[in-house]
Amino acid sequence: MAANASQQAERSLAERHSAVSEMPDELRADVRMLGELLGRVIAEDGGPDLLADVERLRKAVIAARRRELSVDEVAAMVAEWPVDRSVQIARAFTCYFHLVNLAEEHYRIRILRSRDTGEAPLPESLAAAVGELKHDLGDDELARLIAELEFRPVLTAHPTEARRRAVATAIQRVSVQLAEYNAPDRGAHERQEAHRHLLEEIDLLWRTAQLRHTKLDPLDEVRTAMAAFDETLFRTVPRIYRSLDAALAEGTGRRAPLARAYIRYGSWIGGDRDGNPNVTARVTREAVLIQAEHVLTALENATTRIGRSLTVWNGDSPPSKDLVEALTAAADDHPELVSELAKRSPREPHRQWLLFVAAKIAATRRRDLDLAYRSPDDLLTDLRLCQSSLVAAGAARQAYGEVQHLIWQVETFGFHLAELEVRQHSQVHAAALREIAEGVLSERTEEVLATIRMIAWIQERFGVTACSRYVVSFTRSADDIAAVYELAEHALGGRAPVLDVVPLFESGEDLANSADVLAGMLRLPAVRKRVEANGRRLEVMLGYSDSAKELGPAAATLKLYDAQAELAAWAQANDVRLTLFHGRGGALGRGGGPANRAVLGQAPGSVSGRFKVTEQGEVIFARYGHPAIALRHIEQVTNAVLLASTPSVESRTADAAACYRVLAERVASASEHAYRSLTEAPGFPEWFGLVSPLEELGSLRLGSRPARRGLGAPRSLDDLRAIPWVFAWAQTRVNLPGWYGLGSGLLAATRPDPATPGDPGPGLAELRQAYREWPLFASLMDNAEMSLAKTDREIAARYLALGGRPDFAEQVLAEYDLTRTLVLAVTGHARLLESRRVLSRAVQLRDPYVDALSHLQLRALAALRAEEPLSEAERERLETLLLLSVNGVAAGLQNTG
């Protein structure tokens, strides 16, 4: 084992030297400047001695990576500092990671823009997909695919975003000033002022408390998510459609668009009450009202801006008869308002009309019913009236430019912004029905009925599309679906809302039985009626987190693939347009990883132009925090959805799946056995609680939802939610949920099958071939490689030793060594992430600084786990150090939960 640790250290040293040498000059300059500014702030606030200690630790962990110091020497140095000093040092490294993340984001944006030369479509872009599909399918089949295209990202509040909102806001201000400083057209004095302002904002980031002092409530989570809409989503969506329209044909902006609004956002924030007693009917009502306030404000501002700029003179571009009549009717109903608009915009009827529309949107937001719109469809009618009048007047560019953008925004967001989805556990519904039968209702059952009444209220106020999906966790049979419709009858009788009840299959057994459950659902009168009314559409959700926690990453991946294939075949046989809703988390241990590559690995027939996926916690801001990155992400996913829906890709995927089926089953079976032998061993949950900061994570106040389903320490993994399971393992630098068991599975696939005498086994060559030819297997291997790259064996061993079970520690480290060796052998890489240079560089450069925070965290964790009694003040200081280091490690590793 010592030899393995030494070999890994030597490899890590070589890899880091390579990463440093490959670091682009622009990125290096930004990281160095931001680091120097942070150092100045630290010295000004904490004195030169604090900065000296930060530098001492920084140099020590780098030296340890070079094998010039031992980790024991680094740990001894950290132990010498008073806890309060360690807290300050942890703050410094956490702030540094926030700044490094920012520098990398800015560099990524610069690279995206530099590659967009216009000479050829960007890889994985909409233009690239359309070009390929035109060649493969022809124009008619491409038009059919575009007409059916759907992308439904669903924002969720899973608590993996460790930063406070105040910290995120401070980082955003630093980002603005960094962009100002790097702007190429700045003069010397402007650049000097930007530098001064950048230092000011970094100073504020340093002085902003990293830890929350109060627990988030669900409405805080709603407001946090709204920042992504306000800053990015509203403005990015029309750019996506414009990009698609330009790819489909020449002349975008002066002809009727060929691209349609295919994106529909959803949200669980304020609607997901599974295990979260803080989400009530009142919270759901407030959540949808907050969303409506934001989208109506955005629509009002956009319409006002476009209206004010639409100075089209009627002498040159006369209004249509319909627009004249509409303005006359408006003047009859609202004479003062229209008269004022006419006075401000004489002989500019199109401008008058759009400003009148803006006034009506404002009235809708204020609930001024005399002027308000009744529905988004009414608003679209008015916008299209203006558009058609402009076309008739010969002003096609005005009609299909900004006015079209506004139409696309209304079609995408409506008056509710995102469809609010409700989720509840099947056992809660079963208990509610029992109580109703007995005639004595608990507070929880009353809340279930109140939630259904609230759905009806939302539909009456904002329309059915604002809230109709009801997700049932742990669906085991069609009875679990029938229960929701029965409860709706109890809640409102004949006035029950329109419900699309969505089964959520999470465990391995439930995934295997999913098609049978759907067959039972179709026999339910309420489901049959809804399916017939909505064009034979049905939705099913697949849970990645709990299946991975139960089975391990390799077995869960195959189970999910098999479920998708079976569900797709069932849907085709039953003439059902099935949408699979992928409950993927941000972390690799919860189904995370590049979404576009995951789409291409789906079972044939399971995409069919439709993709729905959860976007949670830290991922929301990683993907939607900046317009350029959001645009790229959505284009990449749409590219993959279009390509995955073509007969050629489906055929290749089906052939590869059939070819490597036996191989995959052997890998999955052995990996699941290895995974369960660890996680189901007596004493494992208690050991996990000792070696990780699991128990302390609740003090971070990450979100409104409890970390576990019961009270007290978890006695089995069933008690623990998948999010803290993955998050805590990331903190230990083990990242176990992303790779554990895969090595045993790959090893079994290279050996003879004992059940088949004389069978030599597929061998390494077939595994390598599967990696090259089967997207699903390639995605599994690549994601495991990323998790392994973020694992540090030497530091992980120190965490694992805290549990007092050397047998568990040795089992984990042995599986790590095996998995690392075989993943490299299968991929053909000499080092982890060899084929992904940008990611590899980021991981290698960050590792020493994450090491610093890990040593600080280990110091706190060891003291908290020791048998010696601590005073209340000592425990509080140690917990502060621990939680600050958790924040920093999360920022350093990224996609951790």
From TrEMBL:
<feature type="region of interest" description="Disordered">
    <location>
        <begin position="1"/>
        <end position="21"/>
    </location>
</feature>
<dbReference type="InterPro" id="IPR018129">
    <property type="entry name" value="PEP_COase_Lys_AS"/>
</dbReference>
<keyword id="KW-0456">Lyase</keyword>
<feature type="active site">
    <location>
        <position position="158"/>
    </location>
</feature>
<protein>
    <recommendedName>
        <fullName>Phosphoenolpyruvate carboxylase</fullName>
        <ecNumber>4.1.1.31</ecNumber>
    </recommendedName>
</protein>
<feature type="compositionally biased region" description="Basic and acidic residues">
    <location>
        <begin position="12"/>
        <end position="21"/>
    </location>
</feature>
<feature type="compositionally biased region" description="Polar residues">
    <location>
        <begin position="1"/>
        <end position="10"/>
    </location>
</feature>
<comment type="similarity">
    <text>Belongs to the PEPCase type 1 family.</text>
</comment>
<feature type="active site">
    <location>
        <position position="549"/>
    </location>
</feature>
<comment type="subunit">
    <text>Homotetramer.</text>
</comment>
<keyword id="KW-0120">Carbon dioxide fixation</keyword>
<dbReference type="InterPro" id="IPR015813">
    <property type="entry name" value="Pyrv/PenolPyrv_kinase-like_dom"/>
</dbReference>
<keyword id="KW-0460">Magnesium</keyword>
<dbReference type="Pfam" id="PF00311">
    <property type="entry name" value="PEPcase"/>
</dbReference>
<comment type="function">
    <text>Forms oxaloacetate, a four-carbon dicarboxylic acid source for the tricarboxylic acid cycle.</text>
</comment>
<dbReference type="InterPro" id="IPR021135">
    <property type="entry name" value="PEP_COase"/>
</dbReference>
<dbReference type="InterPro" id="IPR022805">
    <property type="entry name" value="PEP_COase_bac/pln-type"/>
</dbReference>
